[in-house]
């Protein structure tokens, strides 16, 4: 039957009102409807699915970039702290050395004023011991600074490595997510008959979004109106 006859049968024999913008077709003894304005075809679902997959992949990559960015920022803080510790230890050592020099100079001046020879005997021993103790203190200050600086630099290196690892992981996850998502879309397209060479109407047909049909059934059959010609 042609479209006019199908419309007549639907409205007059089965009492089903058919709007003018609804096209009727007959397949295997059943009448199916195609609604141009409330279309929900396989292409629409696949496009939505592709967009969702692409957005998910993009978000995964963005998360990896953000994680690497944060790790680099933390590494920069550690490097700044390392440099600050190094400068502070050098400055502290310099101050300690200058203090020792001044103290020894004052002691020598006092001894000379009292007629004590400081370049021999006990005064010389004391002065030598003070100089050695000062050198030891300075060495301790510098070593403490180097250890702390090294800890900060090691932390920075670990942060950078961690950021790169997270970035690589996000790329792998995005690739896996994309392959899985688009693979599922390809399977859905195949099930929907989009790759079929058949000249018949697409097996997915069309239906109103309000029918509540499950997506699993979508692409396998037309929505039957429930009446025969």
Average predicted local confidence, pLDDT: 67
Structural class: mainly alpha
User: How many distinct helices?
Assistant: 3
Strand content: under 5%
Element-by-element helix/strand order:
HEEHH
Largest sheet: 2 strands, antiparallel
Enumerate the strands of the largest sheet in spatial order, edge to edge or round the barrel: 1-2
Give the fraction of residues assigned to helices: 55-70%
Write down the domain tally. Answer: 2
Shape: rod-shaped
Rounded to an integer in angstroms, the radius of gyration calculated over CA atoms is: 42 Å
Low-confidence stretches: 36-46, 189-229
Can you count the beta strands? 2
C-alpha end-to-end distance: 9 Å
Word description of this protein:
This protein has 229 residues and is mainly alpha-helical. It has 2 domains: 1-41 and 204-229, no CATH class; 62-198. Helix content is 67%, strand content 4%. The chain has 3 helices and 2 strands. It has helices spanning 3-13, 42-113, 121-191, and strands at residues 23-27, 30-34. It has a two-stranded antiparallel ribbon.
């Amino acid at each position: 039957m042609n479209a006019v006859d199908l419309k007549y049968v639907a409205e007059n024999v089965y009492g089903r009102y058919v709007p003018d913008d609804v096209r009727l077709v007959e397949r295997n003894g059943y009448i199916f409807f195609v609604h141009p304005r409330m279309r929900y075809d396989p292409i629409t679902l696949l496009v939505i699915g592709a967009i969702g997959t692409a957005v998910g992949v993009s978000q995964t990559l963005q998360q990896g970039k953000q994680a690497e960015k944060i790790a680099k920022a933390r590494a920069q803080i550690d490097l700044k702290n390392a440099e600050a510790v190094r400068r502070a230890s050098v400055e502290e050592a310099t101050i300690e050395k200058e203090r020792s020099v001044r103290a020894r100079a004052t002691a020598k001046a006092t001894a000379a004023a009292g007629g004590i020879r400081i370049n021999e005997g006990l005064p010389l021993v004391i002065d030598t011991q003070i100089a050695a103790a000062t050198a030891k203190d300075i060495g301790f200050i510098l070593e403490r600074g180097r250890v702390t600086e090294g800890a900060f630099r090691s932390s920075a290196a670990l942060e950078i490595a961690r950021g790169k690892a997270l970035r690589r992981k996000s790329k792998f996850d995005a690739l896996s997510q994309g392959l899985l998502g688009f693979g599922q879309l390809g399977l859905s397209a195949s099930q929907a008959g989009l790759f079929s060479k058949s000249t018949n109407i697409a097996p997915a047909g069309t239906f109103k979004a309000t029918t509540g049909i499950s997506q699993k059934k979508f692409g396998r059959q037309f929505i039957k109106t429930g009446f025969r010609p």
